[in-house]
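Molecular record:
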Amino acid sequence: MKTIAVVAHAGKTVGGGLPELRRVLEQEGIVQPLWFEVAKSRYAPKQVKRALAKGADIIIAWGGDGMMQQCIDTLTGSKRKATLVIVPAGTANLLAGNLGIPQDIAEAVRIGLHGDRRKLDVGRLNGEHFAVMAGAGVDARMIDAADGSLKDRLGRLAYVLTGATALRAKPFTACIEVDGAPWYKGTASCVLIGNVGNLFGGIQAFEGAKPDDGLLELGVVTADGPVEWTRTLVRTVAGTATDSPFVRTTKARSLTIRFDRPVPYELDGGARTKVKELRIKVKPKAVTVAVPMPDDSAAVAESAAVPGTVPAPAPALAPAPAPAIENGTAPHEHPFHELPSRELPVVEAPLQRAGDASAAAGDAGELDEPVAERVAPTQAV
């Protein structure tokens, strides 16, 4: 017998909204689940903890990638374990798309209650856990500028508009260690750390990425300005990004990234404050998530056709070996011909504490109080 809890971002909607979610749950025999609604994703951790304290075995999370990140961060750090059920109702829904969960309420609930269970890795970055991707530089600037009302009004188009401005930002200098060994030292405009491979529209950022392989993906982009970024993006879509002198990728269990100045970063689509150092480590099989059954061809076919999910895989950035790179050039690899790098001594920057990460989340415009908390008697199924 399972106890069900719903933790919903009240500002997000899909289909018939939360009333439809209630109807679908009632059709599944779940008449009175534990029910929590929050105004912003920042307040979700407290509600997840309350649900766990009340004995929840299954947490149905309603919202986008930011909401899922907050729930996963809480579940990963909790002694009591529960399965996360994703009902994607956000803008990007990259986690749901990578797992084959469609932006359809009835199907997402069916997968959550009757589908398979998969233990996923998570990355821990400066005290917070993420399941999709984290990044510093261009992507973080784009996400920060699109946050709030612009994204609510325009959806994914907001990223296109803010991205055009973000591409003009001045590159920074990065010193990167992979699994304790020097890997890269030079200029960069974007550093991306991924737990999954797919971006929007079936485009793969990292070829062969799996969220349960015990590894994180690392990508460094050195493109400077709209022209070089356009060339890089075109090659990514075409599946030849690694032929570009502006891209390097590898895999890692742990990463230390130091910048020559404070650089903005993001976690699963949520903007954070500027830092001079990122420390990242993978936590294998840290959270259990409901996913489609391996032989559930109907769910897989539907997820490929529903907006907000990822269709059949497209060509990707192939991971490269991880030799040490000095001044942007790796032995036995072609150099970054078109963007020279300058020498940078290792920056000894203080590590951001977990409390700092919480404060950073607050800077992203989250509210402190939930919209509502309606806890009904637990319905066991």
